[in-house]
Amino acid sequence: MSLKNVNTVLATAGALFVLYLGLSFILTPETSTPGVGLPNWPAGDGDGFLIMKGIREFSMGLVIGILLVTGHRRALGWVLLMEAVAPFGDMINVLAHHGSLAAAFGIHGLTSALIAITGLLILRETSKAPAPAPAPAPAAQPA
Predict the structure, then answer these.
(1) Pseudo-torsion of CA 126, 128, 130, 132, nearest 10°?
(2) Which residues, at least 6 apart from 65, have a Cβ–Cβ distance to it below 8 Å?
(3) E strands, 55-123, where?
(4) Pairwise CA distance, residues 55 & 57, whole Å
(5) Using CA atoms, how far apart are residues 107 and 113, in angstroms rounded to an integer?
(6) Which pTM was predicted?
(7) What element of type H or E holds 22?
(8) pLDDT tens digits for 6-53?
(9) How large is the C-alpha radius of gyration of the chain?
(10) CA dist., res. 28 & res. 138, Å (int)
(11) What DSSP letter does each residue of the chain carry, written as one string?
(12) Are 67 and 24 in contact (CB under 8 A)?
C-alpha cells in the first residue's frame, strides 16, 4: 500500500470520527460528554457550551473532508497540523481543571498526536516532487 493510500485512509478515518464526535455533542450533549475527562459539569443549562464544542468538531471534520474530496493534499497536511491544536487544548483544559489524567493523555493527547502525525505524513508525501523529465537530445546538425 502506498504512502498516499495510507494517508488517505488515516485522514478519512479522522474526518469521519470528528464528524461523528461533533454530531454526538450537537444531538445528545448530555450523554456524549461524560468521557472527556473533566471532573465537574456545568450547572444549569450547560448544554449550549457542549453544543458549541460539537459545532467546532463538526466543522473541523467538514474541512478535512472537503480537502480530501477536492484533492488539495498539501493544504490537508497543513490543516491537520493546525487541527491537532484543538485536542491538545482539550488535554490542557482537562489537566488544568484537575480532570482525569487517563482521559487527558489517552483521549486528547493521543488524538492530537495521531492528527499531527497524519498531517506530517501527508506533508511528507506531497513534498516529493516528481523527477524532471530528461531534456530532449539536441538534433544532429547536417554537415
Answers:
(1) 130
(2) 15, 19
(3) none
(4) 5
(5) 10
(6) 0.80
(7) helix 3-27
(8) 999 999 999 999 999 899 888 988 777 777 888 777 667 777 778 888
(9) 21
(10) 70
(11) --HHHHHHHHHHHHHHHHHHHHHHHHH-HHHHSGGG--S-PPSSSTHHHHHHHHHHHHHHHHHHHHHHHHT-HHHHHHHHHHHTHHHHHHHHHHHHTT--HHHIIIIIIHHHHHHHHHHHHHHHHHH-PPPPPPPPPPPPPP-
(12) no
Asked if 53 and 26 count as a contact pair (C-beta separation under 8 A), the reply is no
- Secondary structure element (H or E) that encloses residue 136, with its range: none
| Block residue for cell numbers 523527477 | 131
For 121-142, write each residue's pLDDT tens digit.
999 998 865 666 676 767 777 7
Could you tell me the CA-to-CA distances from 74 to 4, 65, 86, 126 in Å, in that order? 12, 14, 20, 6
Burial 79-118, CB ≥16 within 10 A → b, else e = bbbebbebbbebbeebbeeebbeebbbebbbebbebbbeb
The dihedral built from the CA positions of residue 51, 57, 61 and 64, taken in this order, carries a sign that is: positive
Q: Helix (H, G, I), strand (E, B), or coil: what is residue 124? A: helix
Terminal C-alpha separation, the chain: 54
Which residue is it, cell 498531517? 119
The C-alpha cell at 45 is: 443549562
Question: Grid coordinates standing for 68?
Answer: 480530501
